[in-house]
UniProtKB/TrEMBL annotation:
Organism name: Alicyclobacillus sendaiensis PA2
UniProt name for this protein: MBL fold metallo-hydrolase
Pfam family, one: Lactamase_B
Residue ranges occupied by any Metallo-beta-lactamase domain in the UniProt entry: 29-196
Signal sequence region: none
Amino acid sequence: MANEGAWERVLPGVWCMRVPYPNVLPYGTVNLYVIQGGSEAVIVDGGATGEHLALLVERLREMGIRRVTGVLATHYHVDHTAGIPELKARLEAAAFMHPLDIPAFDVHFPHAAGTFEPCPERLRAGDREICVIHQPGHTHGHLHLWLPDAKALLVGDHLVDEGSVWVGPPDGHMADYYRALDAVMQAGADVALPGHGPVIWRPARSAERLRARRQMREDQIVAILAEGPKTLAELTAALYPDVDPRAVPFARHTVIAHLERLEEQGIVRKAMSAADWIMRYARSEE
């Protein structure tokens, strides 16, 4: 389902465009959502550029949408924002992002600085209400969106149907991500619409699976450190022995995020060796 086509109705009045992004593993696509309420719409995430952006504008016209009340980015990463500056101009729509992510966008994409304004707590598309929820984890300003009429939660890069998601500094914080997963489990959502991959029909179960996976990684780290102090490179190699080479930087940053959380809990400590000036991690009791 994840790569069956560029345009799909995923819920009544909610459409998804799957935009190719080959370096985004494992799906190779990023999702752009259109939430329609009569002749109005809200667009969520804007990775579409070039021919995909043109297709999006054409589809909006075919759907009878005369006004886009806002283009909202769940977070600032390029696969979710690349097309938003042009979309904003072509549709004469406001572009929104959480204020904690706006400075990061402006620094990383100086040619488009000033594109975004702080997101409101609610958006509307016709008679549809969309609640905007600050839910950090993947980035400091990451957002979830709640559609009350559909009991649907748009979760950005916090949830996927298969595999796992990347949480790594300086953007990501693992303790926040645990809280984000807890929030999904408590949201009472019937369905989650993720930033990548297919619709998730049991979001609480998916969040529970990802939480257990993250806890498993931390248990593995503690077990590896029981053998003695380890460098970041050694821990990454032990935890991800068969990782795709393209994903090594993401794996490394995920390990850092786990180590930061374990340090915050007092389970792990780090120290620089005077012998070789290499940072190593160890269990705190050692």
